[in-house]
Amino acid sequence: MVARTDLVTHPAAIAGLLLARRGQAYYSRKLNELTDAEFDGATLLPGWSRRELIAHVGLNARALTRLIEWAATGIETPMYESMAQRDEEIALSATLPALALRNLSDHAAIHLTVEWRDLPDADWSNLVRTAQGRTVPVSETVWMRTREVWIHAVDLANGGRFDDIPAPVIDRLLREVLSAWDRRRVAESLPVFAFEATDRSAPFLSTDVTSDVVLRGTAASLAQWATGRGAEGVTTAVGQPAPEPPHWL
After folding, report:
1. How far, in Å, CA of 156 to CA of 57, rounded?
2. How far is CA 110 from the centre of its chain?
3. Helices 167-188 and 219-226, interaxial angle, to 10°?
4. Crossing angle (nearest 10°) for helices 140-155 and 167-188
5. pLDDT per residue over 143-195, tens digit each?
6. How far, in Å, are 112, 114, 178, 235 from residue 215 at the CA level?
7. Which of 201, 195, 239 is nearest to 214 (CA)?
8. Residue pair 219/197 in contact by the 8 Å Cβ criterion
């Protein structure tokens, strides 16, 4: 039997896939550290049990796989039929036995990896549509999954830390959050934020020149605050407690 080989050869895509796979390995390790009984515990996401979160992460891999199949075949296969269908699927999957949830997590992640591996370089620029309605090249699915597994590994609330997340992921998160707030500033009357990371050589700035609120801390602690996971280690530039961040996604 001829061994299957990875069709991806572009260096940037390879580097992105490595971060996604490292994130999946980290998430899987934190998941496997949980006993079956601990699946019923709470997460860092208000109102979400570990069961719901584990179901969500597994089903997200399946949904992203559909986008890759769309890019490969040209046949439109959305992530979800609707957001209501997505929520119903998570709720139903969360009732599965713990072993079934573990299998969902593992098998969906493997399938996603195989679809990435088998997608030729020429197809990575093919356009697909996210669950939020954005039209993006299918290459964006790598970042979407990277963000998903690293952050939700922390959300499992059993020892995962933003400090464990690789610097390229943290830095992109900070830039992404600032960009999201920039896009919504006028509609939501948001202030202009900037991040002064004590372990980076340059600040993370909004597209605007003047910042209304400057937050200071390590890059990891700033990312934790910006994504709504707590303000530990973050203050304003004048040493006051960090305010509540606007919602991110």
Report:
1. 11
2. 17
3. 40
4. 100
5. 999 999 999 999 999 999 999 999 999 999 999 999 999 999 999 999 999 99
6. 37, 40, 12, 6
7. 195
8. yes
In total, the chain counts a number of residues equal to 249
- Distance, CA of 7 to CA of 203 (rounded, Å): 37
How far apart CA 1 and CA 220 sit, in angstroms, is 45
Q: Is the pLDDT of residue 8 over 60?
A: yes
CB 215 within 8 A of CB 225: yes
First to last CA, the chain: 45
Instruction: Give the C-alpha separation, 96 to 56, whole Å.
Output: 12
Beta-bridge partner residues of 216? 196, 235
Q: What is the pLDDT of residues 61-86, one digit of tens each?
A: 999 999 999 999 999 999 999 999 99
Please give the Cα distance from 50 to 207 (Å, whole number): 37
- Written as one letter, the residue type at 227 is T
Q: Comparing 211 with 132, which gets the higher pLDDT?
A: 132
pTM of the full structure: 0.94
- Provide the token pair at 211: 């910042």
Using CA atoms, how far residue 127 sits from 10, 16, 138, 158, 200, in Å, is 18, 18, 6, 37, 34
Determine the Cα–Cα distance for residues 96 and 59; give it in Å rounded to an integer: 13
